[in-house]
Amino acid sequence: MASTASEIIAFMVSISGWVLVSSTLPTDYWKVSTIDGTVITTATYWANLWKTCVTDSTGVSNCKDFPSMLALDGYIQACRGLMIAAVSLGFFGSIFALFGMKCTKVGGSEKAKAKIACLAGIVFILSGLCSMTGCSLYANKITTEFFDPLYVEQKMGYAYNGATSVMSSRTKFQGGGGDFKTTNPSKQFDKNAYV
């Protein structure tokens, strides 16, 4: 009974992490910069993995999608790829986890279910690592540009916002659930059950 409850808890934590990472991918404010006037903020520049935008003091936004994937900086391409890989791996990890749980009727024998559950945990950990690496790469680029005195666009000084500041907690949910799935094997199998 305790093993089934721990599987359900790990599944719910992993799924919630996957949903949170999936919701971070289209978030608008990955980096934000403002130009302040004497009384009001005159313009806000913000960007994400898909576009850059400017919003003036009246609230009117003007956005420009990135025109070509080949014309993008390497870190944006890498972040896009890692985040999409994280969402894809999380999806397949949730499918494997459903088949590997003891409370489901699909998946075969207990040995097969244990192997599938272990595979789901490994896939969830890989998904969490992909999302954490993608977000860390993006945050590192923002930080190095912000503190570089020779950077041409230093006047704008992008800073962290929404997606990058919350991402570490979201990846901990996803990777942590997978870690819980792989480190909590069933006690009824011998050491050769996963071979």
In summary, what is this structure?
By secondary structure, the chain is α+β, with helices and mostly antiparallel strands. The chain has 4 helices and 5 strands; from the N terminus they run αββββααβα.
Shape: elongated
Gyration radius, in Å? 21 Å
Give the low-pLDDT segments.
184-195
What is the residue-mean pLDDT, rounded to a whole number? 78
How many runs of DSSP E, i.e. beta strands? 5
Major sheet characteristics: 5 strands, antiparallel
Task: Give the ordered list of helices and strands.
Answer: HEEEEHHEH
Structural class per helix/strand content? alpha+beta
Identify the strand order in the major beta sheet: 4-3-2-1-5
Distance between the termini: 25 Å
Q: In percent, how helical is the residue content?
A: 55-70%
How much beta, percentage-wise? 5-15%
Number of helices: 4
Describe, in plain words, how this protein is organized in 3D.
The chain has helices spanning 2-24, 74-100, 110-147, 162-182, and strands at residues 31-36, 41-47, 51-56, 61-65, 159-160. The model is unreliable at 184-195 (pLDDT under 50). Strands 4-3-2-1-5 form a 5-stranded antiparallel sheet. By secondary structure, it is of the alpha+beta class.
